[in-house]
Design brief:
The complex is a heterotrimer of chains A (308), B (255) and C (356).
Chain A: H1 2-32, H2 39-60, H3 65-92, H4 101-122, E1 127-128, E2 137-140, E3 143-146, H5 147-169, H6 171-181, H7 183-188, H8 193-219, E4 221-222, H9 226-241, H10 246-270, H11 280-294
Antiparallel strand pairs in A: 1-4, 2-3
Helix pairs in contact in A: 1-5, 1-8, 1-9, 1-10, 2-3, 2-4, 2-8, 2-9, 3-8, 5-6, 5-8, 6-8, 9-10, 9-11, 10-11
Chain B: E1 3-14, E2 17-28, E3 32-36, H1 43-50, E4 58-63, E5 66-67, H2 74-79, E6 81-83, H3 96-103, H4 112-117, H5 120-139, H6 155-167, E7 173-177, H7 185-200, E8 204-208, H8 212-218, E9 221-226, E10 229-234, H9 236-241, H10 243-248
Parallel strand pairs in B: 3-8, 3-9, 6-7, 7-8
Antiparallel strand pairs in B: 1-2, 1-4, 4-5, 9-10
Helix pairs in contact in B: 3-5, 3-6, 5-6
Chain C: H1 3-9, H2 11-35, H3 37-62, H4 71-84, E1 85-86, E2 91-92, H5 95-117, H6 122-142, E3 163-164, E4 167-168, E5 173-175, E6 178-180, H7 182-205, H8 208-218, H9 220-225, H10 230-256, H11 266-279, H12 284-313, H13 320-338, H14 347-355
Antiparallel strand pairs in C: 1-2, 3-4, 5-6
Helix pairs in contact in C: 2-3, 2-7, 3-7, 3-10, 3-11, 3-12, 4-5, 4-6, 4-10, 5-10, 8-10, 11-12, 11-13, 12-13
The chains are: A mainly alpha (308), B alpha/beta (255), C mainly alpha (356).
Chain lengths: 308, 255, 356
């Protein structure tokens, strides 16, 4: 039971990160049916920028830890938004009416370029998260939850609520939903479709920046290769929830985090220790393949995984 | 004459909309059968159910004396029904000849190992595919354009290439979805000659068409659909006078 | 009249050209060996990657299915070879037995992956194949517990070289005053395999199955209406491509004598994909050019840019590995954006351009 509760807490923490990253995939997919494969790299850039700033501030100022992390995050957001915007303009816009695989291939190219650029800027060595947040641990029925974990879960919930408000309560949100229904008609109705698509990329990138700080502070390090696997898993989460569906991305992220954590915690028991927790990364892909084969619409989405 | 296609009580719903309700019709060997009706009458839906794109909710087809059980669209062609598309769907970046050669796929057999080893059997089959494809291009009047890329052909030629490609599957029934759409009078006249010739050479035709002149002049029998129901069936002259048909078309086009 | 047409009308010129190229290819390793055996090894790896690119071209170029986990099949072939010809299980089967087994194993994996997923839309299929590639790598990495099969991240070493009787591909031999080193022998073997693979590709392209692949790539609905069982034909493409990868993997294991999961990471899949995209998806000669370019240019840069940087700045500013990766990334992006048909567009696309 302790293991179960502990893995549930760990799963919720990771799941919160997946959910926030998955929102970026799902928003872009919802609006232009594009898998923004480079989104994981945007998360990585966010983590790297934030860590650099946080590291410098921690070493050179006496600001309170919360303020330092906040400034670091605020610095990462514009950097990620810039990268997200650049991706849209340079890598995808020209290919909006090209065959579906073309933008996916450019996206793969873009993510490699982003990784290499990050490596040139920050070197091959991981950046560490300075020990500024007290490592307070709370006990809960035999399981433990750290301050960082609580912060991650709370932040992601706030982000999701915020995003929902933007999409359903603002003019921008109306325009985004209209564009996702039918970009052509939305254009005729006076929506500047290019602007809306760029805005979608930028919002997704801003979320990615925060997600980068969250996941980096959870593991304590940021590294130029951290984005690809995280991005893939978040994509799996988005598909699990039903890609194009905001609530689906949130649900899918949380579920995937929990599946991974419980899977890693129990796989040994179930398989007589033939497989151990080092197979953790397999679960996300098995979930992805399972969902696409048996329920391409995901948990909350419409059927879109199959050929139109 | 014997019955080639027998459709019994074909029904198809999309959500709450009844696109086809209990459509029954029979097409006889060697005839040209027209399916007409105002926009949204269910012609294309019927066509798609017949060719396996959609599955009927009720009813069934029998084709050439046997029930037509289709679980995937490609089996329709195997059974002997070939189709063309309303909005031309050629293999755009392949040559005209290659397009027709693809049509021979279903009647030929060479597999991976045949292709790699290229034994006498495979080579003979390839030659036969080539010859048949050339002959079919000639048949539809595109003999000189075999090496041209499909999407660079003029519109009327693309329509005829689609027919040649469909004929390459050796169909018993050739189903044409608005073959004259977008054609001028001269092109339509050539098309009409081609279709008559195909029938004379032994292939039964099912025609969905908006061009009333073409349908009335070409078809032996016509069924008229309106709101998913068959409201009339018979020879063109009789259908033309049918009160329900005139009502459906508001007397406009047929008068 | 194009250059090839001119050649066709002049068989003497054609044959003398073929003989010239053959002589050059036969002499090449000795010329390379003068610059250093490293260059022969580089050439061998380039040929190996050309084999991989030609295999992937069947899947991506002919059938239009984006496979991002292709390197997994290469890995399966390599591990099958390593397990059956190394001290790992004390098995030492001859290579002509193992290579077909490796091809078959890769083929089975291809079918296992393809059968449930090939009905998915292209971009989803791409991600699923990527996931599959990662799963396979994770298994390579972890199947050392509880029974040691793959030896985990340490990989498998002391893998047998190819041998026929007492003739080993790894030993030096002097013949007619020429020094045939191990890499040079492998070079000739690889060249033979490459020629065979090119012939197979050319024949497949111009066959009933090849036309069906292209038809599916162009318009799947129309292909079905023509009676093509698209699922089966796509599965064939997957199986073929996977088998090629399996054979290349077996050769890789034998040539290197050592393999580890490191060699079968996602980046390698992307690298092979870049080669296919750079040359022009679907065009056999283009893919070969793309594979050779992306294999040699990074090596050339390594030998020119490095010393240049050191002499100019006194230290290394951009590592050659980074240059290599940037080259792959940029190749993918720029080709898709500005020249989607590739450096050497297929004949079909050439005709397209000629029309405009």
């Amino acid at each position: 039971m302790e293991i179960f509760l502990q893995q549930l807490i760990n799963g919720l923490t990771l799941g919160s990160v997946y959910a926030v990253v998955a929102l970026g995939y799902t928003m872009v997919y919802g609006i232009i049916q594009l898998i923004n494969f480079a989104h994981g790299e945007v998360v990585m850039i966010g983590a790297m920028v934030a860590f650099s700033v946080i590291g410098w501030l921690a070493a050179n100022t006496a600001l309170p830890p919360l303020v330092i992390v906040l400034i670091g995050t605020l610095a990462a957001i514009p950097a990620c938004v810039g990268v997200g915007y650049a991706l849209e303009i340079f890598a995808y816009r020209r290919l909006r009416h090209a065959p579906r695989l073309a933008p996916l291939i450019t996206a793969i190219g873009a993510s490699i370029v982003l990784q290499q650029v990050a490596m040139m800027i920050w070197s091959r060595n991981p950046l560490g998260f300075p020990q500024i947040i007290p490592n307070t641990v709370y006990h809960l029925e035999g399981a433990t939850i750290t301050l960082v974990q609580i912060a991650i879960i709370v932040t992601s919930v706030l982000l999701m609520v915020g995003l929902t408000l933007v999409v359903y309560r603002t003019r921008l949100g109306v325009a985004m939903r209209a564009t996702s229904q039918n970009a052509h008609i939305a254009g005729l109705m006076g929506v500047n479709v290019n602007q809306i698509i760029a805005a979608t990329f930028m919002i997704g990138a801003a979320l990615a920046a925060v997600a980068g700080v969250m996941v980096g502070s959870y593991y304590g390090i940021a590294h130029y290769t951290m984005g690809s696997l995280l991005g893939l898993k978040a994509f799996c989460a988005a598909v699990l929830g039903g890609i194009g569906n905001l609530a689906g991305a949130m649900l899918g992220g949380m579920l995937l985090g929990i599946v991974e954590a419980l899977g890693a915690g129990y796989i040994g028991d179930f398989t007589n220790n033939v497989f151990g927790s080092n197979y953790q990364d397999v679960f996300a892909f098995l979930v992805l393949i399972g969902v696409l084969v048996f329920r391409p619409s995901g948990l909350l989405g419409e059927r879109i995984g199959e050929r139109a | 004459m014997s019955i080639l296609l027998d459709a019994r009580d074909i029904g198809k719903r999309f959500g709450g909309v009844e696109a086809l309700s209990a459509i029954s019709l029979t097409i006889e060997h060697g005839e040209i059968y027209g399916l007409i009706g105002p926009n949204g009458a269910g012609k294309t839906t019927f066509f798609n159910v017949l060719t396996g794109v959609y599955r009927a909710d009720s009813g069934g087809f029998s084709f050439d004396g046997a029930p037509l059980n289709v679980s995937a669209p490609h089996q329709v062609a195997v059974a002997g029904i070939a189709r063309t598309f309303q909005n031309i769907r050629l293999f755009a970046n392949m040559s005209a000849l290659e397009n027709v050669m693809v049509g021979r796929h279903v009647r030929t057999h060479a597999g991976i190992f045949g292709a790699i080893l290229r034994g006498a059997g495979t080579r003979a089959e390839e030659r036969a595919i080539h010859e048949r494809a050339r002959a079919l291009l000639d048949y539809v009047g595109l003999a000189a354009r075999g090496n041209e890329i499909a999407h660079s052909l003029p519109y009327g030629d693309q329509r005829r290439l689609e027919i040649a490609r469909a004929l390459a599957t050796d169909p018993k029934l050739l189903a044409l979805d608005e073959p004259a759409a977008g054609m001028n009078a001269t092109e339509t006249a050539t098309l009409r000659q081609l279709l008559e010739r195909i029938r004379t050479d032994g292939t039964t035709l099912l025609l969905i068409e908006h061009d009333m002149k073409l349908v009335m002049g070409l078809c032996d029998r016509i069924a008229v659909l309106d709101y998913g129901r068959k409201i009339a069936e018979g020879a063109p002259a009789a259908v033309r006078k049918d009160a329900a048909v005139i009502e459906a078309y508001l007397g406009g086009e047929l008068a | 009249m194009t250059f090839t047409d001119k050649l066709k009308t002049n068989p003497a010129a054609l044959w003398s050209g073929v003989v010239l190229i053959a002589c050059a290819l036969i002499a090449l390793p000795f010329a390379l060996a003068m610059a250093g055996t490293t260059w022969v090894r580089v050439t061998n790896l380039a040929i190996l990657f050309t084999l991989l690119a030609l295999g992937l071209n069947i899947v991506v170029g002919f059938a239009g299915l984006l496979d991002l986990g292709y390197i997994a099949f290469y890995g399966v072939g390599a591990y099958v070879y390593a397990l059956l010809a190394s001290p790992q299980f004390n098995l030492h089967l001859p290579f002509w037995v193992i290579l077909p087994i490796g091809a078959l194993a890769a083929c089975v994996f291809g079918v296992l992956l393809g059968a449930p997923t090939l009905k998915l839309r292209g971009d989803y299929l791409a991600i699923v194949t990527l996931g599959f590639g990662e799963i396979v790598r994770i298994f390579f990495n972890n199947l050392s517990q509880p029974v040691n099969i793959t030896n985990g991240p340490q990989g498998i070493s002391r893998i047998d070289p190819f041998t026929i009787g007492s003739f080993s591909f790894s030993q030096n031999e002097v013949l007619l005053g020429l020094n045939f080193s191990g890499p040079i022998k492998y070079y000739y073997l690889l060249l033979l395999v490459l020629i065979a693979v090119i012939v197979i590709n050319l024949r497949l392209e111009d066959s009933r199955i090849g036309r069906a692949w292209q038809a599916i790539r162009e318009d799947e609905v129309a292909a079905q209406a023509m009676g093509i069982n698209t699922t089966r034909i796509k599965l064939l493409a997957f199986a073929m491509g996977a088998s090629f990868g399996g054979v290349a993997g077996g050769m890789f294991a034998a040539m290197q004598g050592f393999i580890s999961p490191e060699s079968f990471v996602l980046v390698e899949s992307v690298m092979v994909l870049s080669m296919v995209v750079l040359g022009g998806m679907g065009n056999i000669w283009g893919v070969i050019v793309g594979a050779l370019l992306l294999s040699f240019v990074p090596e050339l840069l390594r030998h020119t840019v490095d010393p240049l940087q050191r002499s100019l700045f006194g230290r290394l500013i951009v590592e050659p590995e980074v240059v290599r990766m940037l080259l792959f990334g940029l190749a993918l992006m720029l080709m898709m954006l500005f020249r989607p048909a590739g450096l050497w567009p297929s004949k079909v696309r050439q005709r397209e351009l000629a029309d405009e």
